[in-house]
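Why does residue order matter? Because the sequence determines the fold. Keep that principle in mind as you read this record.
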Amino acid sequence: MSNRSAVDTIRGYFYQFDLSILSILQLESLDDSVEVECIEDIDIRTATEVTATQCKYYAKTEYNHSVIKDAVKHMVSHFRETLLGTKPKVSYAIKGYYASGQEKLDDGVDVAFLKDNFLTYSKGRGSSKVTHYHHTELGLSDADLKEFLKRLTIDVWAREFDEQYREILDAIQKSFVSTTFAAEYFYYNNALAVIRQLSIKSVPADRTITKKKFLERVNTSTVLFNEWFIEKKGKKAHLSALRKEYFTELNISPYERFFLIEVDPNGYVRSDLKDIFFQLSKKWAKLSAREPSPFCPYIYVHGVPSDELIALKTELILEDFKIIDGHDFQGADFSHRSIAQKATYGNKIKIKVLNTLPNIEQTVGAIFTTRRIYQFYLGNSYFDHEDPAIRHVKIQVEKLSDIQSII
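Structure:
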């Protein structure tokens, strides 16, 4: 498969996932549900009916009846089983976006058109070529096909990829009363992860979700490192957007900022972590003699053994990079008063290091000025603070260098 074909295929997957998300958001009742890849790509279940929907994205293809022929044949086969009582009655829908040719269906579909263009096909070549009539082989009468058409909707004017995406973000903003950024990086990102998880379940019942449950699962304030979302946005653009949203301030206010950083102990390089210390101090500390309210950030490192953290702090001190960690002398207990002392031009405190999660909790709880917590994690979030007065941003990353790109 060429790179261009691969890109088109991936966009096709996203188009289907996005339609699933939009279909859920547009459900009228919280108890209505969507089944992902069951009878068709998407099955929409309300209190009164089920609609089996197949969607395709053909951005570079002219619409021809042959493009949806197999889908119609499959639906007709399923329809026959509903007549026999072996499967429940459903409605059918085909949605597709095409580069051109949509006018070929402007006159609609009647029984004759259905048979000629969708249910008649040939196999073989030359003298061995055989024409098949799908409806005849299934034993369906014209009356049966007329009933099938009452249940079928064909939309060849579906929304373009980016247009559908914008519609999703608009629907999310209305559902959660959110900003544009939150709609995309929190809710859509999470929605995409939920739909992806549903689509790979082996049991159809496990691929079903109500609107209520979907909104609950999507409603989190955590930025996930979702590989599908990253594929769609591009990693560089993703990291840049996070930096712009959270770490670009023209005039940095003297808030108490806590940076919680997780590292992989198996892939850990001390110099990389030191660079983050330097970077955070340079950007988020103000210690000049003319600064009316000097300040510096707090840092907690998750995943590094205590002896390695001691070695790191030792190197920083030897390089005249002054830190404090809330322990005033050897053997002293942690003191939130000690670590919360003001960093100034005179004492040159550039970073305040928190050694444990309880140290964070004690310090955050003892401060009453504006506090912000920025937590970077690899797999699972490791710190929660429920105080609504504190802004707590959780960002999942893939590796330490991602943090450098964000901050």
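The chain has two domains: 3-223, 234-406.
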